[in-house]
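U., I forgot to send this yesterday:
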Amino acid sequence: MHSFIPPKRFFPYLSWTEIQSIPNKENVVIIQPVAAIEQHGPHLPLIVDAAIGMGVLGKALLKLDASILAYAMPCLYYGKSNEHCHFPGTITLSTETLTATIMEVADSIYRAGFRKLVLMNSHGGQPQIMQMAARDLHVKYGDFMVFPLFTWRVPHITKELLTPKEAQLGMHAGDAETSIMLALLPDLVKMDKAVAEYPPEQPEGSLLSPEGKLPFAWVTRDISKSGVIGDPTTATKEKGDRILESVSDGWVQAIKEIYTFEQPQPVRVNKMGF
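Result:
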């Protein structure tokens, strides 16, 4: 049931008395993986985001020094995936349902005495939900430090392994995700069905794009027939192994910093106290 997570780091394997007696509980890092069950083209399974999140986190927790207390929660497999709803198999929650689930899980974590919660999101369609939930939780509990983090935003070398076009335009089920799945769950990857497809180009000089500083709303079928947004045909297990090592190293660094993190306090800048 712990998937890629080391059993000693899997929160549900603890008893309530063990949780009650955890020392330095205000600094213990609780990590809630949040993912999705959604289409990833004809060559990848629906579980990609969850597999990547749990695979990266599991490897990071294996590398983490035992003196740093950090525990993984069970993955929230369902997410807000309605941009993929036109492709069979995609399961989606509403914004309201996902937000309420995160808030209520976090309430329980806080009630148990923990004060540091990481929302480790692996699905690109819902980082804004993590950010808003984190802010609302900190408003609700002033001493609750909540970190809305995206799995792929820690330091890593992935872009160095991709073509310039893939690094710029690959968004979904492309080289990086396919390569890391070849490292994690190779039996579920059907490379003979992999196809490359990029979003239609915007008019020359346009400021707008599906993702970027000035985005427009879109669903996947607007910009892809296959469900792929990128080029998975160049993916390899060797590349995936390197990506997995690098991203998990980034997460070790992040967890260490969160463990010692203290909430910033305002500093007076003049005699008036402002």
